[in-house]
Amino acid sequence: MSIRRFLPRATSELPTADGPARARARIPAASRPLRCAAALAALLGLTACSTRDETPMHQGAALAHPTAVTPADYEFPLAWAGDYTFRWSAAGDIDLGAPEAAVVRAFAESTQVALSVGARLAYPGYAEVIPNGKWLRIPDGGAYPPGAAEGDWKLRWAGTFLGRILRIQPDASGFTAMYCLDDVDVAESYDAGATYTWRQDQPGKPPRGLPVWLTVRSTAAPADPEAPAADTAGATGVDARTTEFGHRRAPNYDVFEGWTITDVTATAPRDAEAAALAAACTAWALDNPHINPAYLAETPSRVPADQLPEAAPPLPGWGIRIAE
After folding, report:
1. Whole-model pTM above 0.70?
2. Which of 200, 209, 220, 323 could potentially form a cystine with 180 if both were Cys, beta carbons 3.0 to 4.6 Å apart?
């Protein structure tokens, strides 16, 4: 199960309680607004290195469920979400370290974490800034079974998610953004990591990227929509000069401070500009080298991931907050 399963569609396929077999579940229309592998390291121009520097993974049944902590004490919930990372790139002159780009990255990564542990236990600040809607406000324990007051704490992933920010457009009250996710080289588990299968969105069809549009407002922005664009660099959000990139999979500070997310959309493009961005997302995903055998024409059904894909080092990763 990935975020694709929760995006606005008439129906969405979900795993059954016994595992990855699929059952149909209706999504309300009101929800519509959303190794260190040598090849991957070479693609992104980075030196391969291990990311396994955090708490070892354990079977979830042997651990107490995670609880909310202060931002400074937050750690990526490896034992509950699985051994995976995100690696980001950006189009044009978009700076991955800028406050706006950090919000986009943190939103995408938090949304994935929430599918395993719930929105409240995702990155610091996430639950406070996301818009209302059942598909984002996932309860503690994750997104399965759907509609339950608490998830079953059994969803896990392994491998590397690729993300690309294709647009950040500042405006008077904040900014809009569009990013693309490539989750092809990720394996998923519905039994707390006992078994994994390769991700497969459409059997027999080539992989495709997932485009997502965000509308983000500055909590310090002027109310007048005709007012000049806000100087959001340093005035709101987390100033990139007060942080540093690092090996951490998750931030230990509130990246969302100074912002609120008012809209998340992953429906079909509404205009020519959005259609062009969606096409760029698809082209980028198709150009990425993949190792997932489930997308080969000769293997149209779900494929067990007997050897798990490794989590490549996070890019750019999250550093320790530098005291101002």
Report:
1. yes
2. 209
Low-confidence spans in the chain with pLDDT less than 50? 8-61, 232-242, 324
The answer as to whether 165 is a domain residue is yes
Q: For residue 314, give the 3-state DSSP assignment.
A: coil
Cis-peptide into 77, omega within 30 deg: no
Q: How many domains does the chain have?
A: 1
Residue 302 lies in a domain: no
Tell me if 83 sits within 8 A of 176, measured CB to CB. no
Task: Give the CA angle between residues 267, 169, 266 to the nearest 5°.
Answer: 10
Range of the domain at 272: 35-48+75-295
Instruction: Find the helix or strand (DSSP H, E) in which 129 lies.
Output: helix 126-129
Q: How far apart are CA 262 and CA 97, in angstroms?
A: 22
Residues contacting 129, CB < 8 A, separation 6+: 256, 259, 260, 261
The values of phi and psi at residue 217, to 5°, are -115, 140
CA torsion sign, 64 to 65 to 68 to 70?
A: positive
Token code pair at residue 288: 């990425």
